[in-house]
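hey so i finally got around to running both of the ones u sent me last week. sorry it took forever, my laptop kept dying halfway thru and i had to restart like 3 times lol. anyway pasting them below in the order u listed, first the sequence line then the structure token line for each. didnt double check formatting much so if smth looks off just lmk and ill redo it

first one:
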Amino acid sequence: MLIVMDHTHHMWSVPHGVRDTTRPRFAVEAPHRSRLSAVNEKNFDILFVAGVPATGKSWLGKWLAEQHGYLHINAERDSGVDFDRAGIHGEWDELIMTQRATRFVEAIRRLARPVILDWGFPTRLLEVVRALQAEGVRVWWFRAEHDMARLAFIARGGIDPRCFDRQMADIKHDWVRITSVFGARIVDGLHPNGSQRTPQEIWAKICASDKQGA
């Protein structure tokens, strides 16, 4: 499953998936064991991507959906509509509130298809990513030089560039913690001249690195 992190104008608040923390939407009963066993006979890929804004995370998610049959979940789209469509909104809310990923990952496995999750998370929620990783989710960070990424962000339009500046300041502040989670799983989202790397290029890098045990 691929989890791709991509920010929107709500990038500095807890994502739309958490709408009322006083009334949790998740169920308390355990998943049906026989159903999980049947699904887990095939270990579908779960991929999570995050990183510097405007570096192609959502583009990769859309491409994987179109070309390789992945379910692309944009965690911040329209009040969590992608989670609603997949029927896993409650498990997502639980993950954000508890920072425990077991039930969320089990819910994704029950979808019986590869998934890429794209979420431009506030760095204060880094432990959510660590929890996903502990449950076997592949996590990747998209990197880019600050000035080139800012130009790409502005060219994309739709969001105040000050949002980019705030997120980059947080990334810089928490970089040591971020690298403690992502390690060597870092990919360049832009070419040295500032142009976007294609999804094919990024996917080839991710696959090659994972094959080598990065």
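and the second one:
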Amino acid sequence: DPWVNGHIYYLACKLLWNPGADSDKILDDFYKNMYGSAADDMKKYYDNYEKAFIDSAEHVANQTPLQQIGTIFTPAVMKKAEKHLADARKKQQDNFIMDRIEKQEIAYGYILRLVQAIQSAMEIIANSDQFWLFDPAGNNPKLHDKYNVCFSELASYIDKYQSENIFYGTGNNYHTKMINKTNMLNYAESDLAKASKGLDKKEYLASTKQTITKPDTTTESFDIWMYGNDWDSGENDGQTYEHFVYIIDPAGKRIEIGALGNLGDANADKVNRINIISNVSKNIIKACLDKNKDIKFLITNPSGAWTMSTFFAAYIMPPINKINNDYATWLVQKKVDWVRQASFGFRELSYQGEMLGENKEYEFLIPVTGRETAVPAMPVFFKE
């Protein structure tokens, strides 16, 4: 740490003695005494990083999110840093000062490998279908192979140079939390997903440049697929539903369409899962559309029901022969693009969904765009 931030400590100590001192002159003094004839190049090295922090417009705290690191230490910034270090090495022959430059080269190597590992983790998450369905096992072997290589290079580098006391090594909280193959993926998921704003079918059609040319007008009733975590049964007898679902008509009247909760299922609190609300009348859907063709849904968690669930998404689907909760869950988790196309409308919430505690009522809109009469064949359920 003193090797990376030594100039900052030097400046801080000097300003404690004289708060009115010229900061630039203090730093120039540091570079001259620390790096001799390589002072100008090392000043450029440090200034390059400082400018990168300023240009990124990131608010940097001790617990810096992973995506901030990639935003600050871009390939262009790292390339300049490498050049400044190479120029400094050419100009300095003093062994003591050369050793100091080499310390910075080690620090540079750590930053470079850390950024590469983070970016490869981010790439895996960015290619996931939905942030809140992130699966560390993933379905893109090439991206995972790349991440494994980058992370292994970072870990080996830390093991090789941690005795130099230039950066955090093993055994401290930072290393335990962040320099961990699974945790880095989880942090990458969290950081990227927090920037997500969810998705509905109108936005989906626009982003995929799809249009509905032959709308399906034959469906007389609908199934509502409610995707969430911890849809379980009541706390007393195991036979009490946890949540009730309503459609709200334009006059504000609540129309109950079904309930959520896997009655008698002891594992319901451990998994993400679909609950299908079946046979919602076409007349109800039509009567409840507002002028924008949105339909308002409401989920309630009455007093005395089980404690907490999390709501992730809802899909207005046609009735599908032989579909059940497990099949629908698999489709959303593994073949979500098919579900989006097959739906008449959907709403996917952003990262971590919406917590539904006791007495909580949550309203959300689903734009009803319709769907093509012909959609791709439904994927065959493969229970892994």
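quick thing i noticed on the 2nd:
The CA atoms of residues 249 and 288 lie 4 Å apart.
anyway thats it, ttyl
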